[in-house]
Structure formats: C-alpha cells, structure tokens
Write a structure and sequence with these properties.
mainly beta; Porin; ten-stranded antiparallel beta barrel; two-stranded antiparallel sheet; 16 strands
C-alpha cells in the first residue's frame, strides 16, 4: 500500500504542477494593477475556486459505526467560466482618465494585453489573462474511520517552486462525516452529515483562500459487497469561500497592495456515482455550486 499511496500522491502533485507556469506569471500581472483593478482582474476566481475545492469531498453516505476502514486517492475537480467572466471595465487610477468604456481581460480572459486610451494622448496598458474557459485542480485525499459512526477526511499537498517568484503552492483540508443512518436503521439509503474546511495558498501572501463545505450525502450501493458494486450518491450542502491577495506594485516597489475579495456563499448540489472493484474505487460527479462543474477520482482502500 505504501507504493500505491506514493503513486497516488505524485499523480496529484503532477496535475497541480501543470498550473505553476501560468500562476508564476500572476505575480507580475497583479503588480501592474491598482487594488480596485486587481479585484476586477481576479473577479472570476472566487466562484471557480469555491466550486472546485468544495467538490469531490464525499462520495458515499455509508459510514460504518466501528472498525478500521480507509481510502487514499486523487480527485480532479473542474469548474466552467462564463463568457461574461472574461472581461471587466477597469477603474481609472489617479492621474489617468479614460472614457470608462474599454473592457480589459480578467485572469481568465485573452492573453494579449490591452491598451486603454486616456485624455491628452495618454495610454495605460492592462495585462492579459490566461485565456481559459475552465479551472481544474487535483487533490490527494485520505479518509480513515470509524469511531461511533464517524470518519476523518484529509487533503494535503505542498510544492516549493524555488525557481519562481511564487514560493509555495499549498493545499490543506480536514473534516469528517458522521453517519445519520445509524440512528434510523429503516432508512432506504445510507445517509451521513459531513463538514470540510480547506485552505489554498499561492506564494507567501500572493493568494490566500479559505473554503468551508457542509452537506448531507445519501447513497445506495448495489452489487456484491467487497467485490463489485455501484453506488449512486446525491449531496445537498452549503459552501462559503473567501480569498485575499497581496502583492507589490511593479511601478513602485515600496507600494504593497492588499485586496480582499467578496465572500462567496451558496447552495451546493451534487449528483454522482462510485464504482468499487475489490479495493479500487472510481467515481464521477456533477456539481451545481458557485459555478457548475464536474469531478472524477481514483482511490484505493475499503
């Protein structure tokens, strides 16, 4: 199991590493913006991060009352952006005046910078985005139980990008599920209440996010226990998400800018299914949350 665990964790880190080059450019892009315009530029991220981080946490409502059971795996979560997320109208900084109608890229908008004309022939350049329509992240996850119908869930990865301006990329989450079914033995499905808290950070202070997901998951397994079974599941929950950004202006290195994005709160609906083949588990799910999205996962254990 040690070799399997190492393979699963490395797979998660490899997917996370794919976003590092684009993220490394974020430091310079933000440095060219005032605080108000940094909020506009980063505007699409809170909903996307909330939708992805708060997905694929719980794949079953069945939590044994006692005994040793655990899984270790990787979940890949993605969320979609709308076309309206690709641009915003910037706020003119002090000493510059435009007609207030030119749209510039957000972080997910076109990759080309946009020159905004101002009075007296002045021009202000705004950075391009990453030119993407989806946001995807992978997270290694460990579950272990059970005590009084309760299991613990942990997510974690950390990467030190020493050759970039970012420093570390780090995700950490913890929470658990508690069986509701144990109190109502005649329920037609397995039902559990879950709560999960996560932090996701880029750099020492560049981006700092916090996410909380609470939900009730119901599932019903069909097939041969311990061999092959299919377990459809549904989840109804509630998400909260906050994000802070902190960066240094590229035009004035003494100007340190801190930005707090508006807090996100929304209902979260999940529909998915998990297939178990002996000790191998595969799952896929669709989520309607801050953004719509999907997730898949592979794990090992019982």
């Amino acid at each position: 199991m040690t070799r399997i665990a190492r393979t699963v964790i490395l797979a998660g880190l490899a997917v996370a590493a794919m976003v590092a080059p684009a993220a490394a450019d974020l430091n310079d892009k933000l440095g060219a913006l005032t605080g108000d315009n940094a909020k506009g530029y980063l505007g699409p991220l809170p909903k996307a991060l909330s939708a992805t981080l708060n997905s694929a946490v719980f794949q079953t409502g069945k939590v044994p009352k006692t005994g040793i059971n655990f899984t270790i795996g990787v979940h890949v979560m993605g969320a979609n952006f709308s076309d309206d997320d690709r641009t915003f109208v910037p706020v003119d900084p002090a000493g510059f005046q435009s007609d207030g109608s030119t749209e510039v890229p957000t972080i997910i908008g076109g990759s080309e910078s946009v020159a905004v004309p101002g009075q007296g022939g002045t021009v202000l350049n705004y950075p391009g985005g990453l030119d993407t329509k989806t946001f995807t992240i992978a997270a290694p996850e460990l579950t272990i139980g059970s005590v009084f119908g309760t299991r613990a869930v942990v997510r974690w990865f950390a990467m030190d990008l020493k050759d970039s301006d970012l420093g570390k990329i780090e995700l950490f989450g913890f929470g658990g599920q508690h069986s509701i079914s144990q109190y109502f033995p005649n329920l037609p499905a397995d039902v559990a209440f879950g709560a999960f808290y996560q932090t996701f950070k880029i750099g020492d202070e560049l981006l700092d996010t916090k996410a909380l997901h609470v939900n009730v998951t119901a599932s019903k397994a069909v097939g041969a226990p311990g061999l092959v079974k299919l377990e459809p599941y549904i989840g109804i929950g509630y998400d909260t998400f906050s994000m802070d950004a902190s960066y240094t202006s590229t035009t004035d290195p003494t100007d340190h800018i801190a930005v707090s994005m508006d807090k996100q709160s929304n209902v979260h609906f999940t529909l998915g299914a998990q297939l178990t083949l002996a000790v191998v588990k595969l799952h896929g799910e669709f989520n309607v949350a801050a953004n719509t999205g999907a997730a898949i996962g592979l794990s090992f254990g019982r």
